[in-house]
């Protein structure tokens, strides 16, 4: 009997060992070869993938769930939503040429803005947003040529962006396979303010003071009254977290560009990773902590500079 027990134990041990090795190899593939890059940005790791590679080529973790039929981490509730990549549905964007889009946030969920991905091929061309709708474009992968007005052209690559005021004539043509994340909302005009065209890149924006907090913050748009929303880029090193559990009137649309962590929305706690999208309604309690071996970076829409009664 003892001999049988020993053989059974050895078989069980070998099974666990082999399974662990297989999972470790799969997890190594999921990590994209980041290895021991620690808290350094993945783009700085020698031989690592391009910037924001995980946001445009997301993988599920643990690896053995990715092929499970019907599996999704997406959750939609009254005051928040987590939209994960395995539930994205792409279709032709109206009036765009050779472009597929996936709407992640829209008014049908309770938002007053839209947030969507646009997958463009080489030579694809954009369409204009509806009348009185402003647009912000952020390049996740590839590059585009942005033409504004009668001939001004800007080249936008990964980590570059453009804010296009409502009713400004423009077009975007992709130079290669390109992924954009786009925010649009109907401009909330006030007095005689008129926002300007903004073209920039994340690394050119200064780090701002965040009293009482440890994360790094950049704002992509001016904070002046003509602008009724802003886009924040927020960086957390592993183990860093928001000191304040926020509750405020602003809506948010969030895309994780790098890293992983835990997000609290209302009374729920969600594991999140690069490629995930979050919508937060006004006054939903929210909090984040960064986990893993690399930094978290997320892009955050926030409406600003307007009276909530308007």
UniProtKB/TrEMBL annotation:
Keywords: Signal. NCBIfam families: ura-cupin. Residues 1-27 form the signal peptide. InterPro entries: Cupin_2, RmlC-like_jellyroll, RmlC_Cupin_sf, UGHY, UGlyAH_cupin_C, UGlyAH_cupin_N. It comes from Urochloa decumbens. It comes from the Eukaryota. This is Cupin type-2 domain-containing protein. Coiled coil: none annotated. Pfam families: Cupin_2 (PF07883). SUPFAM superfamilies: RmlC-like cupins. Residues 233-299 form the Cupin type-2 domain. The keyword Signal applies. The keyword Cytoplasm does not apply. Transmembrane segments: none annotated. Gene3D superfamilies: Jelly Rolls.
């Amino acid at each position: 009997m003892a001999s049988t027990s020993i053989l059974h134990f050895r078989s069980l041990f070998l099974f666990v060992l082999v399974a662990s090795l297989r999972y470790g190899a799969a997890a190594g593939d999921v990590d994209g070869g980041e290895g021991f890059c620690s808290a350094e940005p993945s783009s700085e790791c020698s031989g690592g993938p391009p910037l924001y590679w995980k946001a445009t080529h997301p993988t599920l973790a643990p690896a053995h769930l990715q092929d499970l039929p019907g599996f999704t981490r997406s959750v939609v509730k009254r005051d928040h939503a987590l939209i994960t990549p395995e539930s994205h549905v792409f279709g032709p964007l109206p009036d765009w040429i050779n472009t597929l889009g996936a709407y992640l946030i829209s008014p049908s969920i309770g938002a007053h803005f839209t947030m969507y991905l646009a997958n463009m091929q080489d030579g694809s061309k954009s369409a204009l947003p509806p009348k009185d709708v402003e647009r912000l474009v952020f390049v996740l992968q590839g590059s585009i040529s942005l033409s504004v007005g009668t001939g001004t052209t800007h080249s936008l690559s990964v980590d570059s962006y453009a804010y296009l005021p409502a009713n400004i004539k423009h077009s975007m043509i992709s130079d290669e396979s390109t992924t954009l994340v786009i925010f649009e909302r109907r401009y909330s005009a006030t007095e005689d303010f008129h926002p300007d065209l903004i073209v920039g890149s994340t690394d050119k924006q200064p780090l701002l003071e965040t009293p009482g907090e440890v994360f790094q913050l950049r704002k992509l748009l001016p904070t002046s009254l003509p602008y009724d929303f802003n886009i924040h880029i927020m960086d957390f090193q592993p183990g860093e977290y928001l000191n304040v559990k926020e509750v405020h009137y602003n809506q948010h649309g969030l895309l994780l560009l790098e890293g992983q962590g835990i997000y609290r929305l209302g009374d729920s706690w969600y594991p999140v990773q690069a490629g995930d999208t979050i919508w937060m309604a006004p006054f939903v309690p929210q909090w984040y902590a960064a986990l893993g071996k690399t930094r978290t970076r997320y892009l955050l829409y926030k409406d600003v500079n307007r009276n909530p009664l308007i």
